[in-house]
Amino acid sequence: MKLSKLKVLSDDELSAIHDASLKILWEVGVKVESDKALKITKDAGATVDLQAKIVKVPEYLINDALDSAPKTENIKFFNRNCEVSLKLGQGRTHAFSGFNAIHMLDSKTGTRRLATKEDVANFAKLADALDNIDGVGTQAIPQDTLPLSADVRAAEAMFLNTEKHLFFCPSRVTTTRTIFDMARTVAGVDNLSEAPLISIQSSPTSPLHWEAEAIEILIETSKNGLMCEILPQPITGATSPVTLAGSLVVHNAENLSGILMTQLANRGSPVMYGCAPTVFDMKEATPIIGAPEAALLRIASVQLAQLYNLPSHSIAPDTDSHCQDEQNAWERIITTAAPMAAGVDLIVNSGMFETGLTVSHEQLVIDNEILGFLHRFIRGIDVSPDLLSIELIKKVGVAGHYLKEKETLMHLRREHWMPAISSRATYGRWTELGAKDIVMKAHEKAEKILREYQPKPLDPKIQEDLHEIVKKFETNIT
Amino acid sequence: MSGNESLHDKLVQIIQEYDPPKVEAVVKEAVSVGMTPTEIIEALSRGVRMVGEKYASGEAFIAELIMAGEVMKAGVSILKPEIMKQGLKTKSLGRIVIGTVKGDLHDIGKNIVITMLEASGFQVFDLGVDVPTEVFVEKAKEVNAEVLGMSALLTVSFPEQGKVVEALKETGLRDRVKVIIGGAAVTPEWAERIEADGYADNAVTGVAKIRKLLNR
Q1: How many CA atoms lie within 13 Å of B24's alpha carbon, on the beta-carbon side?
Q2: How crowded is residue A459: how many other Cβ atoms within 10 Å of its Cβ?
Q3: B123 and chain A in contact, CB less than 8 A
Q4: How confident is the model at residue B1 (pLDDT cuts 50, 70, 90)?
Q5: Catalytic annotation on B8?
Q6: Cα angle vertex A213, ends A208, A215, to 5°?
Q7: How far apart are CA A213 and CA A203, in angstroms?
Q8: Is B61 in Cβ contact with A412 (below 8 Å)?
Q9: Predicted local distance difference test score (pLDDT) of residue B58
Q10: Of A362, A271, A356, A241, nearest to A62 (Cα)?
Q11: ipTM for the assembly
């Protein structure tokens, strides 16, 4: 059987968190800084204080939204060729590269520098070539553009360099609309819900507060019938209670308020429940994501998403380490294995470290390897009369070996994961091959891909049209 | 000769189908059109060598290499009567006596080395496991071995490798045969201490070292 689903909350505990979140949504409410959003919620029947911009949500509205949001097994992601590339609810966690970092650890110089448009293009190309990367998120916000057009420039680089599904978290409604225009141009459709080749993430500001741009991006996304990934990130002890249970109450209330808004904007539009509560380090006064509590909170939030039968997404692999060291490795394994074993549908963040601020080519290649390892781990052990191999055991008998049996070759690839860059050689062979550690091997693989791999080019006419959209956008903002 | 050429390619390729009955059919076909046993064996070896190269570069699995060796053996066994009849001697790159030392029953590593040596064109005399010192020496003398290979996995059986080297000296064979030792825990320091000519901790390196020792 497959690895048993990892759980950290009992059914009663899940109900207690759900009930507490509803109580908070009704008695405290959420602050929403958008008149448009306030009007929608008021029209729907919420108790709205237009002056204070507070929306108090009755339970029936939440229940109604949870009813109308599409269920996990009905969710499909498309790619640039307008084909279904990912189906959720099939027991697999999909992994996207990402996400919105500022810095790039440049292996050529060994130093951290600001990320550029060219970096975004190269990362998209790398992600396009890597087997276990199922979709491509904006790896970094390019710092060599006008700040307002960074999202749009990054999007252009991504559309050009990968066929995979794209994932954005734009900072403005205007950039969101521009990215939608680009997606329509690439897909050749007017209605993006016919070919949802992109999805959009939007986050409330904890505790219980939606900025105007964030909530309007969410509304705009839902109106277009595109997947909206809600990502609350309450920080324990800073922007939510220090207790994990209390933090989950705030986190769940924020998720539910976002889900409600997607359904009020466009009933039946797809929405994903975010699973990335964050921890606060009280000594350094910094939010951190590689902590054991963060891993526990992810499992708990995946359970909440499953309670609602909604698709779930998290940020992973995660680490607060500043380089590719042991801390990096243990933190990213536990923060990735935990939500995967809990059954999360999507994780976004492959390629990043340093609490999401820095990315590197090597990290993305290493994450591709870790994902292969974990996919195999989660798949568990199959037992069937054939796989028990009784006849084979009898045939080989005692003191022989199984290397020359046809069953060995027949089952090898399905039963065993084949690493791409991990070292498994003897010491002698390892030294003959240059005594390379995993970062060196990841570097070589990344360099080879960037040198030799050519993503399928976008039609030249579409490339021109995309560039026109970018130019027009930049003219309008300057 | 175009018929023979395509059959030659077929012999090379058939190795990678890892199916002994199939190779038997192709070998019979080759014999019937007049290919000599030497030509056939050379073609089959080339097929195994290709798998060996793929294994060395990480493209093939060890199970595939072992299977390739098995398929070749199946093919060659059909030729045995023909070889006897014609009194042919097969050319080899060198004669190697190999075994796992006394007190040690581990032979997977040794078998992998043998497959790779045979694929490279060496003639290998496999003594099996738990081989006493005198058996190594007698066989080396009997076949006029150029290389004697000793495998040991258990550290407690390492001293047996030293005993064989001493026995080779006593019988005056030491100068005529290169000694190579192997096993996952064997170290270059140990090889030096017992005055072996070489050591390897894996099959790919082992074959390369033997070729180097013999300049072949």
Answers
A1: 8
A2: 10
A3: no
A4: very low
A5: no
A6: 50
A7: 10
A8: yes
A9: 83
A10: A271
A11: 0.81
Residue to mutate among A392, A398, A403, A408, with most B CBs inside 10 A, is A403
Instruction: Identify the pLDDT of residue A279.
Output: 97
Assigned token pair, B181? 């030792």
Q: How far is A370 from chain B (nearest CA, A)?
A: 19
Of A303, A289, A279, the closest CA to residue A336 belongs to: A289
CA of B168 vs chain A CAs: smallest distance (Å)? 27
CB neighbour burial string for A230-254, b if at least 16 within 10 angstroms, e if fewer: bbbbbbbebbbeeebebbbbbbbbb
A341-376 confidence digits (pLDDT tens): 999 999 999 999 999 999 999 999 999 999 999 999
pLDDT band per the 50, 70, 90 thresholds, residue A158: very high
Return d(Cα B70, Cα B74) in angstroms, integer: 6
Test the B interface: residue of A402, A426, A444 with most B CBs within 10 Å:
A426
Q: What is the DSSP string of A325-371?
A: SHHHHHHHHHHHHHHHHHT-SEEEEETEETTTTEE-HHHHHHHHHHH
Residue B185 has pLDDT above 90, yes or no: no
| Amino acid letter for position A184 | R
A441-457 pLDDT, tens digit each: 999 999 999 999 999 99
Residues from chain A that touch B63, judged by Cβ atoms under 8 A, are 403-404, 408-409, 412
Cα A49 to Cα A30, A39, A64, A258, B215: the distances in Å are 11, 10, 22, 18, 90
Tell me how far apart the alpha carbons of residues B71 and B12 are, in angstroms, rounded to a whole number: 11
Q: Which residues contact B67 (CB under 8 A, 6 or more apart)?
A: A403, A404, A406, A409, B18
pLDDT digits (tens, 9 = 90+) for A317-341: 999 999 999 999 999 999 999 999 9
Share above pLDDT 90 across residues of chain A, in percent, rounded to a whole number: 95
Interchain pair B201, A427: CB under 8 A: yes
From B106, B107, B130, B201, active-site residue: B106
Size of interface A-B (CB pairs under 8 A): 41
CA dist A411 and B80 (Å) reads 33
Express each pLDDT in A398-420 by its tens digit: 988 899 899 999 999 899 999 99
**What is the distance in angstroms between the Cα of A434 and the nearest Cα belonging to chain B?**
14
Q: Where are the alpha helices (DSSP H) in A201-355?
A: 212-223, 244-265, 292-307, 326-342
As a whole number of angstroms, the distance between CA A443 and CA A445 comes to 5
Q: Which residue has the tokens 């070759």?
A: A409
Nearest-CA distance from A385 to chain B in Å?
Answer: 23
Q: Is the pLDDT of residue B134 over 70?
A: yes
Strand partners, A441: none
What average pLDDT does the structure give for chain A? 96
Q: Which of B70, B108, B202 sits opposite A428 (nearest CB)?
A: B202
